[in-house]
């Protein structure tokens, strides 16, 4: 695991782009083909977080599971189903995995609450197959999931508040539209008021400039 310059848990610490860029160049050799993917994989190894939330519709509850990259705050995986099943969180993790395509030896950490879906044998097996180390919230401590709770709060205040969905399909469409907008456009104070994708792009530009 990469040393943390501020002495905090690396699964929750935000790293400045210039500090990461210097280390990433020395670790990965960005002149090789596929540098962009490897650099994003390096971002994700600093930690990811998963969580669930409920969205009300006239047809019943829609449950949203997400995986957030803690480096860029980008939502790299999501899944939505009307039922609380284990494959809900597995699908979100697999989407994140295929989007980032990290090295199984990268030392990834996945943090979640103590919900039965995340504690299930099936989910644990997927983590193990991917080489990801599980981390779970301490008892009675909601701050461990602050990033995901902030995301869900923004979703519900900025997009879902006051809306009445007749169908689960309508709620899914609205939620996906917001998630895409969040990744591409929404400014994030943790990222010095850049969007997650803009932050990654600027970070990659800094790395390529150093590597040139």
Summarize the structure.
This protein is α/β, with parallel strands linked by helices and about 210 residues long. The protein is about 45% helix and about 15% strand.
Chart the SSEs and their pairings:
Elements: H1 17-28, H2 35-44, E1 48-57, E2 60-69, E3 75-81, H3 86-100, E4 109-112, H4 116-119, H5 121-130, E5 133-136, H6 146-160, H7 168-184, H8 196-211
Parallel strand pairs: 1-4, 4-5
Antiparallel strand pairs: 1-2, 2-3
Helix pairs in contact: 1-8, 3-5
Which short descriptors sum up this protein?
globular; five-stranded mixed β-sheet; 8 helices; 212 residues; 17% strand; alpha/beta
Q: Would you mind describing this structure in some detail?
A:
With 212 residues, the chain is an alpha/beta fold. It has a single domain, classed as Ribonuclease H-like superfamily/Ribonuclease H (Nucleotidyltransferase, domain 5, 2-Layer Sandwich), CATH 3.30.420.10. The protein is 47% helix and 17% strand. It has 8 helices and 5 strands. Strand 2 and strand 3 (75-81) form a beta hairpin. Helix 1 packs across helix 8 and helix 3 packs parallel to helix 5.
Average per-residue pLDDT, rounded, comes to 79
Query: What string, H for helix and E for strand, traces the elements in order?
Result: HHEEEHEHHEHHH
Question: How many individual helices?
Answer: 8
Biggest sheet overview: 5 strands, mixed
Helix content: 40-55%
**Rounded to an integer, what's the Rg over CA atoms?**
17 Å
Instruction: Please give the CATH class.
Output: Alpha Beta
């Amino acid at each position: 695991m990469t040393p943390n310059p501020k002495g905090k848990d690396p699964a929750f610490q935000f790293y400045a782009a210039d500090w990461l860029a210097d280390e990433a160049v020395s670790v990965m050799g960005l002149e090789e083909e596929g540098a962009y993917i490897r650099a994003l994989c390096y971002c994700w190894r600093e930690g990811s977080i998963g969580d669930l939330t409920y969205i009300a519709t006239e047809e019943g509850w829609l449950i949203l599971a997400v995986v957030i990259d803690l480096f860029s705050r980008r939502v790299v995986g999501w899944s939505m189903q009307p039922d609380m099943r284990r494959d809900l969180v597995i699908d979100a993790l697999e989407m994140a995995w295929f989007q980032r395509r990290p090295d199984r030896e990268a030392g990834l950490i996945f943090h979640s609450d103590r919900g039965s879906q995340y504690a299930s044998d099936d989910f644990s097996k997927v983590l193990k197959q991917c080489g990801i180390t599980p981390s779970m919230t301490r008892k009675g401590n909601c701050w461990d999931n602050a990033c995901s709770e902030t995301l869900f709060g923004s979703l519900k205040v900025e997009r879902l508040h006051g809306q009445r969905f007749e169908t689960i399909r309508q709620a899914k469409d609205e939620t996906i539209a917001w998630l895409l907008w969040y990744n591409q456009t929404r400014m994030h104070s943790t990222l010095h008021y850049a969007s997650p994708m803009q932050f990654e792009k600027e970070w990659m530009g800094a790395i390529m400039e150093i590597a040139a």
